[in-house]
Amino acid sequence: MYKRNLLHQFGCNAKALISKKLNLFCFVTLLSYVLVAVGTKVGWLGADWHREVGEAYQSPNALHYFGTDVLGRSVLAKILHGTEVAMTVGFVVALGAVLLGATFGIVAAYFGGVVDTCVVWLYTVVTAIPTIILLMVVALVLGKGMHTICIALVVTEWTETCRLIRAEVIRHKSREYIQAASAIGASSARKIFVHLLPNILPLTIYQFSLVFQTAIKHEVILSYLGIGIQNKPSWGIMINDAKTGLVRGIWWELFFATMAMFLLVFVFNILADTLRDLLDPKLKGR
């Protein structure tokens, strides 16, 4: 019965999520980004992004829709690879940070005592360090590349999830259903995985969406500073390379890289806000 109700609620939320035209547009746009990232990853799109396809700095035309860069490479192919980089970093970082933060938050809140004190101290220390500074330090210590970016972002982004999940578990731990489970002799594992996790799942999903877009923005910043993605197109690298061409009226590489990032972050913001309204009982009916 509980599983059927959960599936029914999920179906209703999914229907409500795409019922409005703006939400539907954002959902379709996000799905397009996912398909582009997958197609680029397997080599169906933009496979020869490093190959010269025309003269340097050709403006957008019928042959090259997004123009060419200083080396005569297709800006469109580079945008496609930048999409694959952004989506990969966003998904890996969001998954890693949410899993790490949720695990620490649940363990700290459920067991309390010394464990809770240590976890609170740890995320307080990490949060006290400016995010960009911490990202730059981790990236410089571990070296440049996508794996380093993912590790650095997970290190910095798990703290907010941990804090929120900890507070939510503390709130639920005193509820009647947890006390009833304890009364019948339920183990800690059963109370955590069967009773607590389903109740904090909406918050976890919402946090995933927030960390996803934050990771994309930070990856672009680090790549722009030259300590991010290497030997592969990234929106941050494209923006950095294109800034010098603005004085000569060469706007297309900077414009399309910026718009690709803006559109992705925009649709994620809209969907994240809608998701929060659907999953938070206090906001339903507004």
Describe this structure in words.
With 286 residues, the chain is an all-alpha fold. The chain contains 10 helices and no strands.
Q: Count the helices. How many?
A: 10
**String of helices and strands:** HHHHHHHHHH
Overall mean pLDDT = 84
Oligomer: single chain
Classify the beta-strand content into a percent band. Answer: under 5%
The major sheet is characterized as: none
The coarse overall form would be elongated
The chain-level structural class is mainly alpha
Share of helix among residues?
over 70%
- Kindly report how far apart the N and C termini lie: 29 Å
- Total strands: the figure is 0
Low-confidence stretches: 1-8
Radius of gyration: 22 Å
Question: What's this model, at a glance?
Answer:
Helices cover 74% and strands 0% of the residues.
Which tags fit this structure?
single chain, 286 residues, mainly alpha, elongated, disordered N terminus
Topology, pairings included?
Elements: H1 2-17, H2 21-41, H3 75-111, H4 113-128, H5 131-142, H6 146-173, H7 176-183, H8 188-225, H9 235-242, H10 252-279
Helix pairs in contact: 2-3, 2-10, 3-4, 3-6, 3-8, 3-10, 4-6, 5-6, 6-8, 8-9, 8-10, 9-10
